[in-house]
Amino acid sequence: MVVKSPLKRTVRILLVGDSGVGKTSLILSLVSEEFPENVPAKAEEITIPADVTPEQVPTNIVDYSAAEQSEAELNEQIKRASVVCIIYAVDDDESIDRITSHWMPLIRQNHPDTPCPVVLVGNKIDLVDYSTIDGIFEIMEEYSEIETCIECSAKTLKNISEMFYYAQKAVLHPTAPIYSVEKAD
Ligand code: GTP
């Protein structure tokens, strides 16, 4: 008997988050393995071939820029994403508040049927000597589609490849329940 393995799909990782949190820097740091001093408003879409990703799945990484994109374009990108990374800056409380006041509701609106996996990413950890993770765990308890969280720094490259690996894993090996008891009638 021949066992056929299913074709591996492409993982589409979208980075969202408030202006200035470091989305573009994170993508360019991953690709060039060094911190870019000057970043464009938006990185070009990047395709990583399957054989250089830890999960062996072709992966597209997509940046978002409020300066260059309309609300409609953002909604379209959220719909197309297989996982959304919400980036916040660990030294910017407002960017943390906006995870629940803005970004999670927007992602839910654009994925009304099947929840889209989310990874919370605290960037600029090089600037502080504390962790934001306790507060982030409270947010994770509210939203079952948040698969995981990680703190990192585009500047020192700390946890950069881990962040993109977590995003891949959130799609390929999700832990969120497919069936929610809360939603059942
Ligand atoms: P928008 O394009 O406005 O949406 O911003 P963005 O989220 O893409 O942020 P961007 O990558 O443009 O970075 C904003 C600023 O933060 C730049 O001055 C970066 O150099 C700086 N920055 C990004 N990541 C880090 C980091 O890990 N540590 C420090 N110290 N600065 C960072």
Question: What key phrases describe this protein's structure?
Answer:
globular; binds guanosine-5'-triphosphate; 185 residues; alpha/beta; six-stranded mixed beta sheet
Could you describe the 3D structure shown?
With 185 residues, the protein is α/β, with parallel strands linked by helices. Helices cover 33% and strands 17% of the residues. It has 5 helices and 6 strands; from the N terminus they run βαββαβαβαβα. A 6-stranded mixed β-sheet has the order 2-3-1-4-5-6, sandwiched between helices. Helix 3 links the parallel strand 4 and strand 5. The longest helix has 18 residues, at 93-110. The radius of gyration is 16 Å and the shape is globular. It starts with 10 loop residues before the first strand and ends in a 13-residue tail after the last helix. The mean pLDDT is 92. Guanosine-5'-triphosphate is lined by residues 17, 19-25, 39, 41, 65-66, 123-124, 126-127, 153-155.
